[in-house]
Amino acid sequence: MSKKQYFRCSVCGDFHYGLRMPTICPTCASQNSYILVNEQEADIVLFEKQCRRGKNEWRVEEFLGVLREFASHNDFILNPDLEHVAFTIEGILRNERAKGLKYCPCRVPSGNFEADLDLLCPCNFKIQETWIDQGRCWCGLFVDPQRYSK
Ligand code: SF4
User: pTM higher than 0.90 for the full model?
Assistant: First the structure.
């Protein structure tokens, strides 16, 4: 039997603990907005535990797989520039090692825990100006395949 895992809605931050990733968020009704998260993220965000650094941290390839899976259900893709993707993921995982959570590497957390939850990767990037104007998230990790240009 497969084991239950934690999933986070990248649009509204809703968490789900279950055997399968929900396709529709019961809180904000977004489709395919959930992403698998590690136990460390769930512990800190949901249970306000001060996690030991290093607990369940993902390596670059593991998080890359999770992001690939996330993009595969949506109308955006991972940036075809894999060097840029690897560089961005390293920044995200560096934040996880230093600050406990996978904060966006392109923005600076304010120190307000609740407000900074909006900076967890992947964030709700489709509301960002860079997505609307250029078809990319702030960091260029995700791009709109119709508008992507190197
Ligand atoms: S802007 Fe891109 S890299 Fe930064 S948190 Fe959002 S999705 Fe992740």
Answer: no
